[in-house]
Design a protein that fits this description.
6-stranded mixed sheet; 4 helices; globular; single chain; mainly beta
Protein backbone atom coordinates (compact mmCIF):
# COMPACT_ATOMS: atom_id res chain seq x y z
CA UNK A 1 0.00 0.00 0.00
CA UNK A 2 1.43 3.38 -0.93
CA UNK A 3 2.13 5.86 1.83
CA UNK A 4 -0.07 8.95 1.70
CA UNK A 5 1.71 12.19 2.53
CA UNK A 6 0.13 15.48 3.50
CA UNK A 7 1.70 18.95 3.92
CA UNK A 8 0.03 21.88 5.60
CA UNK A 9 0.57 24.76 7.98
CA UNK A 10 -0.77 24.72 11.55
CA UNK A 11 -0.38 27.53 14.08
CA UNK A 12 2.63 28.88 12.20
CA UNK A 13 4.33 25.47 12.14
CA UNK A 14 5.29 23.49 9.10
CA UNK A 15 3.78 20.08 9.71
CA UNK A 16 4.33 16.86 7.81
CA UNK A 17 2.06 13.97 8.59
CA UNK A 18 1.45 10.60 7.05
CA UNK A 19 -1.03 7.78 7.04
CA UNK A 20 1.29 6.07 9.53
CA UNK A 21 0.34 8.69 12.15
CA UNK A 22 3.78 10.24 12.34
CA UNK A 23 4.09 14.01 12.57
CA UNK A 24 7.10 16.28 12.13
CA UNK A 25 7.38 19.71 13.75
CA UNK A 26 10.09 22.32 13.72
CA UNK A 27 10.56 24.49 16.82
CA UNK A 28 12.79 27.53 16.44
CA UNK A 29 13.76 28.95 19.84
CA UNK A 30 14.76 32.57 19.49
CA UNK A 31 14.72 35.85 21.38
CA UNK A 32 11.86 38.20 20.51
CA UNK A 33 10.62 41.49 22.00
CA UNK A 34 7.27 41.50 23.81
CA UNK A 35 5.53 44.41 25.55
CA UNK A 36 3.22 43.95 28.53
CA UNK A 37 2.45 46.32 31.45
CA UNK A 38 4.35 49.12 29.67
CA UNK A 39 7.50 47.00 29.78
CA UNK A 40 9.28 45.77 26.66
CA UNK A 41 11.73 42.92 27.00
CA UNK A 42 13.42 40.28 24.92
CA UNK A 43 12.52 36.71 25.81
CA UNK A 44 13.07 33.22 24.43
CA UNK A 45 9.97 31.81 22.70
CA UNK A 46 8.98 29.06 20.25
CA UNK A 47 8.46 30.15 16.63
CA UNK A 48 8.05 33.79 17.69
CA UNK A 49 4.95 33.06 19.80
CA UNK A 50 3.98 33.45 23.47
CA UNK A 51 2.58 30.98 24.34
CA UNK A 52 4.12 28.67 21.79
CA UNK A 53 2.19 26.96 18.98
CA UNK A 54 -0.03 23.97 19.66
CA UNK A 55 0.88 20.42 18.73
CA UNK A 56 -2.06 18.39 17.39
CA UNK A 57 -1.94 14.59 17.30
CA UNK A 58 -4.21 11.61 17.81
CA UNK A 59 -4.01 8.99 20.52
CA UNK A 60 -1.14 6.60 19.81
CA UNK A 61 0.64 8.87 17.32
CA UNK A 62 4.32 9.80 17.30
CA UNK A 63 5.68 13.31 16.76
CA UNK A 64 9.26 14.15 15.84
CA UNK A 65 10.04 17.68 17.01
CA UNK A 66 13.29 19.23 15.79
CA UNK A 67 14.26 21.91 18.32
CA UNK A 68 16.70 24.55 17.05
CA UNK A 69 18.21 26.61 19.86
CA UNK A 70 18.99 30.11 18.60
CA UNK A 71 19.00 31.49 22.13
CA UNK A 72 21.83 32.53 24.45
CA UNK A 73 21.81 29.53 26.80
CA UNK A 74 21.44 25.77 26.72
CA UNK A 75 17.86 24.49 26.85
CA UNK A 76 15.80 21.29 26.84
CA UNK A 77 12.11 20.58 26.17
CA UNK A 78 9.85 18.29 28.23
CA UNK A 79 6.60 16.81 26.93
CA UNK A 80 4.62 17.09 30.12
CA UNK A 81 2.35 14.10 30.76
CA UNK A 82 3.48 12.14 27.70
CA UNK A 83 4.55 8.79 29.12
CA UNK A 84 7.16 8.13 26.42
CA UNK A 85 7.07 4.32 26.72
CA UNK A 86 10.61 2.89 26.81
CA UNK A 87 11.94 6.24 25.60
CA UNK A 88 13.35 8.38 28.41
CA UNK A 89 15.88 9.75 25.90
CA UNK A 90 13.29 12.23 24.67
CA UNK A 91 11.70 13.11 28.01
CA UNK A 92 13.73 16.30 28.36
CA UNK A 93 14.63 17.38 31.93
CA UNK A 94 18.08 18.97 31.86
CA UNK A 95 20.89 16.80 33.29
CA UNK A 96 18.37 14.12 34.24
CA UNK A 97 17.69 12.50 30.85
CA UNK A 98 19.84 14.69 28.62
CA UNK A 99 22.31 17.53 28.62
CA UNK A 100 21.10 20.85 27.21
CA UNK A 101 20.87 21.75 23.53
CA UNK A 102 23.60 24.37 23.27
CA UNK A 103 23.12 27.69 21.43
CA UNK A 104 23.37 27.18 17.69
CA UNK A 105 22.61 23.45 17.96
CA UNK A 106 19.50 21.35 17.41
CA UNK A 107 18.07 18.05 18.61
CA UNK A 108 15.08 16.04 17.39
CA UNK A 109 12.81 14.63 20.08
CA UNK A 110 10.78 11.49 19.40
CA UNK A 111 7.55 12.10 21.30
CA UNK A 112 5.68 8.80 21.64
CA UNK A 113 2.01 9.07 22.61
CA UNK A 114 0.31 5.99 24.03
CA UNK A 115 -2.85 6.05 26.17
CA UNK A 116 -3.10 9.83 26.61
CA UNK A 117 -6.22 11.51 25.22
CA UNK A 118 -7.14 15.15 25.84
CA UNK A 119 -4.83 18.04 26.71
CA UNK A 120 -1.17 18.01 27.71
CA UNK A 121 1.61 20.54 27.15
CA UNK A 122 5.29 21.01 26.45
CA UNK A 123 7.71 23.33 28.20
CA UNK A 124 11.39 24.06 28.60
CA UNK A 125 12.99 22.11 31.44
CA UNK A 126 16.08 24.25 32.02
CA UNK A 127 16.33 26.82 34.82
CA UNK A 128 13.15 28.96 34.63
CA UNK A 129 13.01 29.04 30.84
CA UNK A 130 9.60 27.39 30.89
CA UNK A 131 8.15 30.80 31.87
CA UNK A 132 8.31 31.75 28.18
CA UNK A 133 8.93 28.47 26.33
CA UNK A 134 5.72 26.45 26.53
CA UNK A 135 2.61 25.52 24.57
CA UNK A 136 -0.37 23.13 24.47
CA UNK A 137 -0.61 19.60 23.12
CA UNK A 138 -4.05 18.50 21.92
CA UNK A 139 -4.51 14.74 21.62
CA UNK A 140 -7.63 13.74 19.71
CA UNK A 141 -9.30 10.32 19.83
CA UNK A 142 -7.99 7.79 17.30
CA UNK A 143 -9.51 7.77 13.84
CA UNK A 144 -12.96 6.22 13.92
CA UNK A 145 -13.61 7.06 17.58
CA UNK A 146 -15.30 10.08 19.10
CA UNK A 147 -15.25 11.84 22.45
CA UNK A 148 -17.21 10.20 25.30
CA UNK A 149 -19.41 13.30 25.32
CA UNK A 150 -21.37 15.19 22.62
CA UNK A 151 -19.14 16.68 19.95
CA UNK A 152 -18.50 20.38 20.66
CA UNK A 153 -19.16 23.07 18.09
CA UNK A 154 -15.56 24.30 18.32
CA UNK A 155 -12.36 23.74 20.30
CA UNK A 156 -10.06 26.39 21.76
CA UNK A 157 -6.79 26.28 23.70
CA UNK A 158 -6.35 28.43 26.81
CA UNK A 159 -2.89 28.75 28.41
CA UNK A 160 -2.56 30.35 31.83
CA UNK A 161 0.98 31.63 32.47
CA UNK A 162 3.19 34.05 34.43
CA UNK A 163 4.64 37.35 33.25
CA UNK A 164 7.83 38.81 34.71
CA UNK A 165 8.89 42.34 33.78
CA UNK A 166 12.50 41.37 34.39
CA UNK A 167 14.74 38.82 32.72
CA UNK A 168 13.61 35.49 34.19
CA UNK A 169 16.97 33.73 33.97
CA UNK A 170 18.67 36.66 35.65
CA UNK A 171 16.06 36.64 38.44
CA UNK A 172 16.54 32.97 39.30
CA UNK A 173 20.33 33.10 38.89
CA UNK A 174 20.53 35.91 41.46
CA UNK A 175 18.17 34.14 43.86
CA UNK A 176 20.14 30.88 43.71
CA UNK A 177 23.47 32.68 44.04
CA UNK A 178 22.38 34.55 47.17
CA UNK A 179 20.08 31.93 48.71
CA UNK A 180 17.22 34.43 48.81
CA UNK A 181 13.52 34.03 48.09
CA UNK A 182 12.71 34.27 44.39
CA UNK A 183 10.91 37.26 42.87
CA UNK A 184 7.18 36.91 42.36
CA UNK A 185 5.74 37.44 38.89
CA UNK A 186 4.35 40.84 37.90
CA UNK A 187 1.19 39.44 36.29
CA UNK A 188 -0.55 36.35 35.04
CA UNK A 189 -1.62 35.93 31.43
CA UNK A 190 -4.35 34.11 29.51
CA UNK A 191 -3.10 33.17 26.03
CA UNK A 192 -0.27 35.64 26.45
CA UNK A 193 -2.31 38.68 27.59
CA UNK A 194 -2.63 39.98 31.17
CA UNK A 195 -6.07 41.54 30.78
CA UNK A 196 -7.54 44.88 31.78
CA UNK A 197 -7.26 44.61 35.59
CA UNK A 198 -3.55 45.47 35.75
CA UNK A 199 -1.98 48.90 35.77
CA UNK A 200 -0.82 49.93 32.32
CA UNK A 201 -3.02 47.30 30.70
CA UNK A 202 -6.44 47.51 29.09
CA UNK A 203 -8.96 45.67 26.94
CA UNK A 204 -6.51 45.73 24.03
CA UNK A 205 -4.21 43.61 26.21
CA UNK A 206 -7.01 41.09 26.87
CA UNK A 207 -7.59 37.75 25.17
CA UNK A 208 -11.09 37.47 23.67
CA UNK A 209 -12.89 34.22 23.04
CA UNK A 210 -15.74 34.66 20.55
CA UNK A 211 -18.74 32.37 21.03
CA UNK A 212 -22.04 31.85 19.26
CA UNK A 213 -25.17 31.71 21.37
CA UNK A 214 -26.43 28.16 21.90
CA UNK A 215 -23.17 26.48 20.92
CA UNK A 216 -20.91 24.35 23.14
CA UNK A 217 -17.14 24.84 23.16
CA UNK A 218 -14.36 22.55 24.34
CA UNK A 219 -11.57 24.43 26.10
CA UNK A 220 -8.14 22.81 26.28
CA UNK A 221 -6.77 24.46 29.44
CA UNK A 222 -3.09 24.45 30.51
CA UNK A 223 -1.68 25.90 33.73
CA UNK A 224 1.85 26.99 32.80
CA UNK A 225 2.10 29.38 35.79
CA UNK A 226 5.42 29.22 37.62
CA UNK A 227 4.52 29.23 41.31
CA UNK A 228 0.78 29.53 42.07
CA UNK A 229 -2.30 27.34 41.84
CA UNK A 230 -5.35 29.08 40.37
CA UNK A 231 -9.09 29.29 40.67
CA UNK A 232 -10.77 30.02 37.31
CA UNK A 233 -14.36 30.91 36.43
CA UNK A 234 -16.46 32.56 33.70
CA UNK A 235 -19.24 34.95 34.73
CA UNK A 236 -22.73 33.38 34.57
CA UNK A 237 -21.43 30.24 32.84
CA UNK A 238 -21.07 26.74 34.24
CA UNK A 239 -17.94 24.76 33.45
CA UNK A 240 -18.17 21.02 32.80
CA UNK A 241 -14.78 19.37 33.25
CA UNK A 242 -14.53 16.17 31.19
CA UNK A 243 -10.82 15.34 31.37
CA UNK A 244 -7.78 16.09 33.49
CA UNK A 245 -4.17 15.42 32.53
CA UNK A 246 -5.31 13.73 29.30
CA UNK A 247 -7.55 11.15 31.00
CA UNK A 248 -11.35 11.32 30.98
CA UNK A 249 -13.27 11.93 34.19
CA UNK A 250 -16.93 11.74 35.06
CA UNK A 251 -18.35 15.06 33.80
CA UNK A 252 -18.06 17.54 36.65
CA UNK A 253 -20.23 20.65 36.38
CA UNK A 254 -19.04 23.51 38.54
CA UNK A 255 -19.01 27.29 38.82
CA UNK A 256 -15.19 27.34 39.21
CA UNK A 257 -12.20 25.05 38.86
CA UNK A 258 -8.88 24.76 40.70
CA UNK A 259 -5.84 24.03 38.55
CA UNK A 260 -2.25 23.70 39.76
CA UNK A 261 0.92 24.46 37.78
CA UNK A 262 1.54 21.54 35.45
CA UNK A 263 -2.06 20.38 35.33
CA UNK A 264 -4.27 20.38 32.24
CA UNK A 265 -8.04 20.11 31.79
CA UNK A 266 -10.65 19.72 29.08
CA UNK A 267 -13.73 21.83 29.83
CA UNK A 268 -17.08 22.16 28.07
CA UNK A 269 -18.70 25.61 28.11
CA UNK A 270 -22.11 26.26 26.58
CA UNK A 271 -22.86 29.80 25.44
CA UNK A 272 -26.38 29.80 26.92
CA UNK A 273 -26.57 33.36 28.25
CA UNK A 274 -27.84 36.64 26.83
CA UNK A 275 -25.41 37.92 24.18
CA UNK A 276 -22.95 40.16 25.95
CA UNK A 277 -19.38 40.26 27.26
CA UNK A 278 -18.46 38.01 30.21
CA UNK A 279 -15.18 38.03 32.09
CA UNK A 280 -13.09 34.93 32.60
CA UNK A 281 -11.03 35.45 35.77
CA UNK A 282 -8.10 33.43 37.07
CA UNK A 283 -6.46 34.26 40.40
CA UNK A 284 -4.35 32.30 42.87
CA UNK A 285 -5.38 29.87 45.53
CA UNK A 286 -2.70 30.43 48.18
CA UNK A 287 -3.04 29.60 51.87
CA UNK A 288 0.59 30.09 52.91
CA UNK A 289 2.61 32.96 54.35
CA UNK A 290 5.15 32.71 51.51
CA UNK A 291 5.32 35.59 49.03
CA UNK A 292 3.13 35.18 45.94
CA UNK A 293 1.63 37.14 43.06
CA UNK A 294 -1.73 38.29 44.42
CA UNK A 295 -3.26 39.45 41.15
CA UNK A 296 -6.03 38.47 38.74
CA UNK A 297 -5.73 37.88 35.01
CA UNK A 298 -8.77 38.19 32.77
CA UNK A 299 -10.08 37.24 29.36
CA UNK A 300 -13.44 38.07 27.77
CA UNK A 301 -16.04 35.60 26.54
CA UNK A 302 -17.58 37.68 23.76
CA UNK A 303 -20.83 36.65 22.10
CA UNK A 304 -21.24 37.26 18.37
CA UNK A 305 -24.26 39.13 17.02
CA UNK A 306 -25.77 42.60 17.19
CA UNK A 307 -26.12 44.03 20.69
CA UNK A 308 -24.80 46.89 22.77
CA UNK A 309 -21.85 45.56 24.79
CA UNK A 310 -21.60 46.58 28.45
CA UNK A 311 -19.04 49.18 29.48
CA UNK A 312 -17.55 46.58 31.82
CA UNK A 313 -18.04 42.83 31.23
CA UNK A 314 -19.96 40.86 33.83
CA UNK A 315 -17.61 39.51 36.49
CA UNK A 316 -17.47 35.97 37.95
CA UNK A 317 -17.41 35.07 41.64
CA UNK A 318 -14.32 33.15 42.75
CA UNK A 319 -13.50 31.61 46.13
CA UNK A 320 -11.29 33.69 48.40
CA UNK A 321 -7.57 33.39 47.72
CA UNK A 322 -7.01 31.33 50.89
CA UNK A 323 -10.25 29.32 50.71
CA UNK A 324 -8.90 25.88 51.56
CA UNK A 325 -12.40 24.40 51.79
CA UNK A 326 -13.29 25.84 48.37
CA UNK A 327 -10.21 24.14 46.92
CA UNK A 328 -11.01 20.81 48.59
CA UNK A 329 -14.68 20.98 47.55
CA UNK A 330 -13.55 21.05 43.93
CA UNK A 331 -10.72 18.50 43.97
CA UNK A 332 -12.64 15.96 46.07
CA UNK A 333 -15.31 15.67 43.37
CA UNK A 334 -12.97 14.57 40.56
CA UNK A 335 -13.51 10.91 39.59
CA UNK A 336 -12.23 8.82 36.68
CA UNK A 337 -14.72 8.06 33.93
CA UNK A 338 -13.97 4.34 34.48
CA UNK A 339 -16.21 2.81 31.80
CA UNK A 340 -15.83 -0.24 29.57
CA UNK A 341 -14.40 1.93 26.80
CA UNK A 342 -12.16 3.88 29.21
CA UNK A 343 -11.22 1.40 31.93
CA UNK A 344 -8.85 1.98 34.80
CA UNK A 345 -6.51 -0.51 36.44
CA UNK A 346 -5.62 0.52 39.97
CA UNK A 347 -2.76 -1.52 41.47
CA UNK A 348 -4.00 -3.61 44.40
CA UNK A 349 -0.96 -5.74 45.31
CA UNK A 350 1.56 -3.13 46.41
CA UNK A 351 5.17 -4.35 46.26
CA UNK A 352 6.94 -0.98 46.60
CA UNK A 353 5.75 1.66 49.07
CA UNK A 354 7.39 5.08 49.47
CA UNK A 355 6.41 7.52 52.21
CA UNK A 356 7.82 10.88 51.13
CA UNK A 357 7.86 14.00 53.27
CA UNK A 358 8.14 17.26 51.34
CA UNK A 359 9.47 20.41 52.94
CA UNK A 360 11.00 23.85 52.50
CA UNK A 361 14.27 24.02 54.41
CA UNK A 362 17.49 25.99 54.70
CA UNK A 363 21.12 25.06 54.07
CA UNK A 364 23.62 26.59 56.46
CA UNK A 365 25.91 29.22 54.92
CA UNK A 366 29.37 29.89 56.37
CA UNK A 367 29.39 33.07 58.46
CA UNK A 368 25.62 33.38 57.83
CA UNK A 369 26.40 35.34 54.67
CA UNK A 370 23.43 34.23 52.54
CA UNK A 371 20.18 36.12 52.01
CA UNK A 372 17.71 33.50 53.24
CA UNK A 373 16.32 33.01 56.77
CA UNK A 374 18.92 33.51 59.54
CA UNK A 375 21.59 34.23 56.94
CA UNK A 376 21.23 30.78 55.38
CA UNK A 377 20.22 29.54 51.94
CA UNK A 378 16.64 28.56 51.10
CA UNK A 379 16.30 24.93 50.08
CA UNK A 380 13.63 22.26 49.65
CA UNK A 381 13.67 18.52 50.10
CA UNK A 382 12.00 15.14 49.81
CA UNK A 383 12.61 12.79 52.74
CA UNK A 384 15.14 15.31 54.02
CA UNK A 385 17.24 15.10 50.84
CA UNK A 386 17.72 18.28 48.80
CA UNK A 387 18.46 17.15 45.25
CA UNK A 388 21.67 18.22 43.52
CA UNK A 389 21.42 18.43 39.73
CA UNK A 390 24.55 16.69 38.33
CA UNK A 391 26.77 17.89 35.48
CA UNK A 392 26.34 14.65 33.53
CA UNK A 393 22.78 13.49 32.98
CA UNK A 394 21.59 10.61 35.14
CA UNK A 395 20.23 8.63 32.17
CA UNK A 396 23.60 8.53 30.40
CA UNK A 397 25.31 7.55 33.64
CA UNK A 398 22.79 4.75 34.23
CA UNK A 399 22.87 3.45 30.66
CA UNK A 400 26.67 3.58 30.34
CA UNK A 401 27.29 2.55 33.97
CA UNK A 402 29.27 5.68 34.81
CA UNK A 403 30.19 6.02 38.46
CA UNK A 404 30.17 9.13 40.62
CA UNK A 405 27.13 10.80 39.03
CA UNK A 406 24.38 9.56 41.40
CA UNK A 407 23.81 7.21 44.31
CA UNK A 408 20.98 4.70 44.69
CA UNK A 409 20.13 5.48 48.31
CA UNK A 410 17.09 7.76 48.07
CA UNK A 411 15.27 6.77 51.27
CA UNK A 412 11.83 5.11 51.08
CA UNK A 413 10.77 6.98 54.23
CA UNK A 414 11.94 10.03 56.21
CA UNK A 415 14.94 9.61 58.55
CA UNK A 416 12.66 9.84 61.57
CA UNK A 417 9.02 10.55 62.35
CA UNK A 418 7.58 13.50 64.23
CA UNK A 419 4.42 15.61 64.06
CA UNK A 420 4.95 16.61 60.41
CA UNK A 421 1.89 18.83 60.15
CA UNK A 422 2.03 20.38 63.64
CA UNK A 423 4.71 21.95 65.83
CA UNK A 424 7.85 20.64 64.11
CA UNK A 425 10.41 22.58 66.14
CA UNK A 426 13.81 22.40 64.39
CA UNK A 427 13.27 18.90 63.07
CA UNK A 428 15.04 18.38 59.70
CA UNK A 429 15.31 22.13 59.13
CA UNK A 430 18.66 21.51 57.43
CA UNK A 431 18.48 18.66 54.88
CA UNK A 432 21.14 16.42 53.40
CA UNK A 433 22.23 17.16 49.84
CA UNK A 434 22.87 14.71 47.05
CA UNK A 435 21.90 13.20 43.71
CA UNK A 436 19.99 10.27 45.13
CA UNK A 437 17.76 7.96 43.07
CA UNK A 438 15.36 5.15 43.92
CA UNK A 439 15.69 1.98 41.84
CA UNK A 440 12.42 0.08 41.28
CA UNK A 441 11.93 -3.33 39.71
CA UNK A 442 10.04 -3.47 36.42
CA UNK A 443 6.44 -4.49 37.02
CA UNK A 444 6.37 -3.40 40.66
CA UNK A 445 3.03 -2.07 41.91
CA UNK A 446 3.97 1.17 43.59
CA UNK A 447 2.28 3.33 46.22
CA UNK A 448 3.68 6.76 47.00
CA UNK A 449 2.40 8.80 49.92
CA UNK A 450 3.37 12.46 49.79
CA UNK A 451 3.26 14.06 53.23
CA UNK A 452 3.24 17.85 53.48
CA UNK A 453 5.13 19.30 56.44
CA UNK A 454 5.07 22.43 58.55
CA UNK A 455 8.83 22.91 58.33
CA UNK A 456 9.77 26.57 57.75
CA UNK A 457 7.04 27.47 55.21
CA UNK A 458 4.08 25.15 54.70
CA UNK A 459 2.49 25.32 51.23
CA UNK A 460 0.52 23.27 48.75
CA UNK A 461 2.78 21.24 46.46
CA UNK A 462 1.77 20.04 42.97
CA UNK A 463 3.90 16.90 42.63
CA UNK A 464 4.70 15.66 39.11
CA UNK A 465 6.17 12.34 38.00
CA UNK A 466 7.66 11.94 34.54
CA UNK A 467 7.09 8.77 32.53
CA UNK A 468 3.82 7.78 34.23
CA UNK A 469 0.30 8.69 35.07
CA UNK A 470 -0.78 7.60 38.54
CA UNK A 471 -4.05 7.09 40.35
CA UNK A 472 -4.84 9.60 43.08
CA UNK A 473 -6.38 7.10 45.50
CA UNK A 474 -6.52 9.18 48.67
CA UNK A 475 -5.84 12.50 50.34
CA UNK A 476 -6.43 14.26 53.61
CA UNK A 477 -5.33 16.96 56.02
CA UNK A 478 -2.86 16.43 58.85
CA UNK A 479 -0.56 13.44 59.20
CA UNK A 480 -1.07 10.25 57.21
CA UNK A 481 -2.11 7.37 59.45
CA UNK A 482 -0.84 3.99 58.24
CA UNK A 483 -3.81 2.19 59.81
CA UNK A 484 -6.82 4.43 59.23
CA UNK A 485 -5.88 6.46 56.12
CA UNK A 486 -5.86 3.51 53.67
CA UNK A 487 -9.45 2.76 54.72
CA UNK A 488 -10.48 6.06 53.09
CA UNK A 489 -8.94 5.22 49.70
CA UNK A 490 -10.99 5.35 46.51
CA UNK A 491 -9.96 2.25 44.55
CA UNK A 492 -13.09 2.25 42.35
CA UNK A 493 -12.77 5.39 40.20
CA UNK A 494 -9.74 7.45 41.30
CA UNK A 495 -8.61 10.04 38.74
CA UNK A 496 -5.56 9.14 36.65
CA UNK A 497 -3.23 12.17 36.60
CA UNK A 498 0.42 13.09 36.19
CA UNK A 499 0.43 16.05 38.62
CA UNK A 500 -1.32 16.02 41.99
CA UNK A 501 -1.76 18.78 44.54
CA UNK A 502 -0.58 17.87 48.04
CA UNK A 503 -2.56 20.10 50.44
CA UNK A 504 -0.73 22.31 52.91
CA UNK A 505 0.25 20.10 55.89
CA UNK A 506 -1.79 17.30 54.35
CA UNK A 507 -1.13 14.12 52.37
CA UNK A 508 -1.87 12.45 49.05
CA UNK A 509 -1.56 8.75 48.15
CA UNK A 510 -0.98 7.68 44.53
CA UNK A 511 -0.51 4.30 42.87
CA UNK A 512 0.96 3.16 39.55
CA UNK A 513 2.53 0.12 37.94
CA UNK A 514 6.24 0.52 37.19
CA UNK A 515 5.98 -0.80 33.63
CA UNK A 516 7.94 1.96 31.87
CA UNK A 517 11.68 1.29 32.06
CA UNK A 518 14.00 4.25 32.28
CA UNK A 519 15.14 7.23 34.31
CA UNK A 520 12.26 9.45 35.40
CA UNK A 521 12.26 12.79 37.24
CA UNK A 522 9.89 13.50 40.12
CA UNK A 523 9.50 17.03 41.48
CA UNK A 524 7.30 19.79 42.79
CA UNK A 525 5.90 21.86 39.92
CA UNK A 526 6.21 25.10 41.86
CA UNK A 527 9.34 26.24 40.10
CA UNK A 528 10.93 27.86 43.14
CA UNK A 529 10.67 24.60 45.10
CA UNK A 530 12.09 22.54 42.22
CA UNK A 531 14.99 24.99 41.96
CA UNK A 532 15.66 24.61 45.69
CA UNK A 533 15.85 20.80 45.52
CA UNK A 534 12.33 19.36 45.95
CA UNK A 535 13.20 16.72 43.37
CA UNK A 536 14.16 13.06 43.11
CA UNK A 537 14.73 10.46 40.41
CA UNK A 538 13.27 7.00 40.08
CA UNK A 539 14.92 4.39 37.88
CA UNK A 540 12.67 1.59 36.64
CA UNK A 541 14.80 -1.38 35.63
CA UNK A 542 14.38 -3.18 32.33
CA UNK A 543 11.84 -5.95 32.12
CA UNK A 544 12.51 -9.50 30.87
CA UNK A 545 12.04 -8.82 27.14
CA UNK A 546 13.09 -6.33 24.47
CA UNK A 547 9.54 -4.92 24.49
CA UNK A 548 9.83 -4.24 28.23
CA UNK A 549 13.30 -2.68 28.06
CA UNK A 550 14.53 0.81 27.30
CA UNK A 551 15.08 1.76 23.69
CA UNK A 552 18.63 2.47 22.60
CA UNK A 553 19.72 6.12 22.67
CA UNK A 554 19.50 8.14 19.46
CA UNK A 555 22.87 8.87 17.86
CA UNK A 556 22.64 12.67 18.16
CA UNK A 557 22.05 13.22 21.90
CA UNK A 558 23.32 16.66 23.00
CA UNK A 559 26.82 16.41 24.43
CA UNK A 560 27.53 17.23 28.06
CA UNK A 561 30.02 20.07 28.42
Amino acid sequence: MSLLLFFFFLDGLFLFTAASNVHHYSFILDEKNFTRLCTTKSMLVVNGQFPGPAIHVRRGDTAFVNVHNNGKYGVTIHWHGVKQPRNPWSDGPENITQCPIQPGKNFTYEVIFSTEEGTLWYHAHSDWTRATVHGPIVILPPVGKSYPFPKPYKEETIVLASWFNGDVKQLIDVALATGAETNTSDAFTLNGWPGALYNCSNENMTYKLEVQQGKTYLLHLVNAVMNEEHFLAIANHKLTVVAQDAAYIKPLTTSYILIAPGQTMDILVTANQKPSHYYMFARPFFDSSSPFDNSTTSAILRYTGNYIPPSIPLTPILPAIDDRLGAFNYTSRVRALATKDYPINVPKNITERLYITIAVNTIICPNSNCSGPSGNRLAASMNNVSFDIPDTDVLQAYYRQLSGVYSTDFPPRPPYFFNFSGDVGNNTLHPDQGTKVRVIEWGAEVEMIFQGTNILLAENHPMHLHGFSFYNVGNGFGNYNFTSSPKTYNLVDPPEVNTVGVPKTGWVAVRFKADNPGVWFMHCHLERHASWGMDAVIIVKNGPTKETSMKKPPPNMPKCS
